[in-house]
Amino acid sequence: MRFSEQLWQRNLALYNKTLALPFNQELATGTLNKDAFCHYVIQDAHYLVAYGRALAVCGAKAFDADDIIQFTQGAKEAIVVERSLHDGFMQNFGISKADFENTPLTLACHHYTSFLTATAWSESYPVVLASLLPCFWIYAEVGKDIVNKSVANNPYQAWIDTYSGEEFNQAVKNVLATIDRIAEHCDALTLEKMHQAYTKGAELEWLFWDSAYHQRKWLGLDQ
């Protein structure tokens, strides 16, 4: 069994809980509260900047030139997507530049981005790679599930199409191939640290969506 298959099996229950979140289910039916989606988009834009930084550090730690290219390009794409949110979803849903800039990170977003950047700087390349994988992989799997359930004229169809699309899923396949190749040469201790890093990332993916649905702010308090 490939390392990626082991990751998926070990975290399958958590993935199913993520898939069952009201945010994702209502996204598919087009009934998700607009304010919850706007809350999510603002936090996702904040998140992608930190994710881009972590990808850049991952690229700097990579073992060979191809992996350096893969993750430094990934860092660039994260920032490109972050900027496209401002011109796309934010504009379409009436979120102004001031709205975005004046909205701080939620507790969930702060926790997730802090975990990624701390792991990127402090851990070895294989562990950093494992921590970054959930954002790629879980989004792709959720996107593929939702696209099959999406209703006609879904106001969130553009988001669904992005993460269920071939371009994004090909990027995920490339990252999976990389982590399987790297894992083949890791010792038992490193493999276990990779498992732990992936699980923590997957838990924080769940938390991010759950927080967005309930529009939670810092410590759950309105500001």
Automatic annotation (TrEMBL):
Residues 22-214 form the Thiaminase-2/PQQC domain. One of its GO terms (molecular function) is thiaminase activity. Keywords: Hydrolase, Thiamine biosynthesis. It catalyses: thiamine + H2O = 5-(2-hydroxyethyl)-4-methylthiazole + 4-amino-5-hydroxymethyl-2-methylpyrimidine + H(+); 4-amino-5-aminomethyl-2-methylpyrimidine + H2O = 4-amino-5-hydroxymethyl-2-methylpyrimidine + NH4(+). InterPro entries: Haem_Oase-like_multi-hlx (IPR016084), Thiaminase-2/PQQC (IPR004305), Thiaminase_II (IPR027574), Thiamine_Salvage_TenA (IPR050967). Its EC number is 3.5.99.2. It comes from Acinetobacter nematophilus. Pathway: Cofactor biosynthesis; thiamine diphosphate biosynthesis. Signal peptide: none annotated. Belongs to the TenA family. One of its GO terms (cellular component) is cytosol. Catalyzes an amino-pyrimidine hydrolysis reaction at the C5' of the pyrimidine moiety of thiamine compounds, a reaction that is part of a thiamine salvage pathway. This is Aminopyrimidine aminohydrolase. GO terms for biological process: thiamine biosynthetic process. Coiled coil: none annotated.
